[in-house]
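Summary of Year 1 activities. Much of the first year was spent building the evaluation harness for sequence design. The harness presents a backbone, in tokenized form, and records the residue chosen at every position. We chose the following record to illustrate the format because it has been used consistently in internal testing since the harness was completed.
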């Protein structure tokens, strides 16, 4: 199985998010930024949403 991941964009964080679908990947990244880095919901979502072009390239 060929798994696709991308790394958290927060400085110094090496957390990897698995890319299964665009919706779940944005949701997972938003949750990670909120829970692990204390980002506000809207800021975390905007950051995760801005990664859509990269996520699109990672999907098969």
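For this record, the design step produced the sequence shown next.
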């Amino acid at each position: 199985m060929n798994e696709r991941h991308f790394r958290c964009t927060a400085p110094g964080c090496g957390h990897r998010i698995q890319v299964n679908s665009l919706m779940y990947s944005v949701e997972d990244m938003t949750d990670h930024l909120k829970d692990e880095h204390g980002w506000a919901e809207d800021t975390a979502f905007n950051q995760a949403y801005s990664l859509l072009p990269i996520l699109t390239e990672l999907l098969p």
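The longest helix spans residues 22-37. Quantitative recovery figures across the full test set are reported in Table 2.
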